[in-house]
Specification:
By secondary structure, the protein is α/β, with parallel strands linked by helices. It has seven helices and seven strands. It comes from Mucilaginibacter terrae.
Amino acid sequence: MSIFTTMFSLKFAFSHFLHQHKAINRHGLHSPFVYRLVDEVIYDFSEKKVYADIEKKLSTGKKLDGTDKLLHRLIADAKAQNVWVLGKYQAVKQLVIDGSATALSLKNINKPEDWKDSTAPDVIYLDAKLNPQSAMDYFNKVIPRMQADTLLVVDNIHHNPLTKTTWGIMTSHVKVTASVNLFWLGLVYCRPGQVKEDFFIKF
């Protein structure tokens, strides 16, 4: 392991330690909306048949990790009819979304034709690590399309300083009223009338 890799690993581990120290679980949450989300969705660690069905489509021996399973639960909880996947993504994420939503639309910032869809998305997925330079461009593209029940899932928000900065800018947007920081990924909501809050949750 190189010195650079070791330093990166130590910084990542320290960042995770700080998050866990600051984060809370369902207890102490005063937002009914976020409490329900944490209690019924984020902390639902029961095994589901759909996980095994998706794993059958993966390369031999590969398993879904915790964030893959959570992505399924979030989409299922939103009863998503239309999910947008922005930019580059891992193949496993597409399999998870395909198995969780009615329709999946891939959006590329450089293809104007991808954005002609007038149907509002129920869930939007963006991997900040795989789209480091264009993550904010995608965010600015979709924020006007987000409605009260739209969920934006941002993966790998603590992968490096750039993704952490990007996440911070996203959550500070005037339209964003609630963000949930799970360290591995973040959730963004724009719910009119809700007092703006940023939640740090152990996961």
